[in-house]
Amino acid sequence: MKKRKRIEQEKKLVDLMIDMYVRGHKGGAQFNAEELKNYAHLRIEHCLYKEEDFKPFCNVCPIHCYAKNMREEIKKVMRYSGPRLLFRHPIMSIAHLISTLKSKKHPPPLPKKLQK
Fold first, then answer.
1. pTM of the full predicted structure?
2. Nearest to 76 by CA among 44, 28, 41
3. Apex CA 21: angle with CA 15 and CA 27, to 5°?
4. Helices 33-45 & 68-88, crossing angle to 10 degrees?
5. Which of the residues 35, 43, 81, 113 has an alpha carbon 20 to 30 A from that of 72?
6. Which long-range contacts does 58-66 make (Cβ < 8 Å, 24+ apart)?
7. What CA–CA distances, in Å, run from 41 to 13, 26, 94, 107?
8. Are 77 and 17 in contact (CB under 8 A)?
9. Beta strand residue intervals within the chain, DSSP E
């Protein structure tokens, strides 16, 4: 149950950040927000770490499963939305920051599926 809640929170965070990016870039570059949301949700659902005790956020994960074009899109979104998230959703932002720092300081081992 706890793992499912964590996955749902991560999806919610991605959705919030994409929505913030879209609001801040009205009429901007060609960008399909729904496609990126669906892709991010799919990657989160199929993450090799989701069955582990600690699933890192994608930016600190040793396994890069995003397609190159989608990875570039999500990076743009994160660069724009990350700092703004602190003011709009401070608790969620600080929790995300702590989790990211924890992942960077103590990187997770490869998932059991990939260990020999």
1. 0.82
2. 28
3. 125
4. 100
5. 113
6. 59/100, 60/100, 60/103, 60/104, 60/107, 61/103, 62/107, 62/108, 62/110, 63/110, 63/111, 63/114, 66/39
7. 11, 23, 22, 22
8. yes
9. none
Alpha carbons 89 and 56: distance in angstroms, whole number? 20
Q: Which of 64, 63, 56, 65 is nearest to 103 (CA)?
A: 56
Q: Spell out the domain ranges in the chain.
A: 2-105
Type of residue numbered 50: K
